[in-house]
Write a structure and sequence with these properties.
- The chain is 9% helix and 38% strand.
- It is mainly beta.
- Strands 1, 2, 3, 4, 5 and 6 form a six-stranded antiparallel beta sheet that branches.
- Strand 2 and strand 3 form a beta hairpin.
- The chain is globular and about 65 Å long.
- The termini are far apart.
- The model has no long low-confidence stretch (mean pLDDT 93).
């Protein structure tokens, strides 16, 4: 017999540890982070370039607390306001000068300290990368 009726499959999903930590709101403070990646993509309107960045919190840089370790952070640099990337690059010891080309993606795998605040977005509180960066103090 020819049964053309589609079987009703239930969607099955699985969450990674990172997925579950993504929505965790951190206490505003300085955090040691490891940069996972910095990409490049045209903006929605095509009039500029976005540089989406991802990092993972290692620990609170003020007190060493690991409550938010593993929380992923996503933020963006944009070519129209690229000056926001200056402090990010300088936190790795990169000397930012006019007409000197810098590979933003070279930050991947490196550690820095970032101030993470909170903001309201669509009626909920989320983590906010405030573009405040500082070099890691070496003992």
């Amino acid at each position: 017999k020819n049964n053309n009726k589609k079987e009703n499959k239930m969607p099955i999903i699985e969450f990674s540890e990172k997925d579950l930590l993504r929505g965790k709101v951190v206490t505003p403070d300085w955090y040691r982070v490891k940069v996972d990646s910095v990409g490049e993509a045209p903006s929605k309107d095509g009039g500029s370039t976005n540089y989406p960045a991802e990092a993972t919190i290692l620990y609170n840089a003020s007190n060493g607390d690991k409550e938010f370790a593993g929380v992923p952070l996503d933020w963006n640099f944009n070519s129209k306001a690229i000056s926001f990337a200056r402090g990010f690059l300088e936190s790795f010891g990169v000397k930012v000068e006019p007409k000197v080309r810098i590979e933003l993606g070279s930050a991947a795998g490196k550690e820095t300290e970032m101030y993470i605040g909170n903001k309201e977005y669509q009626g909920r509180i989320i983590n906010n990368v405030e573009h405040k960066y500082r070099q890691i103090k070496t003992e």
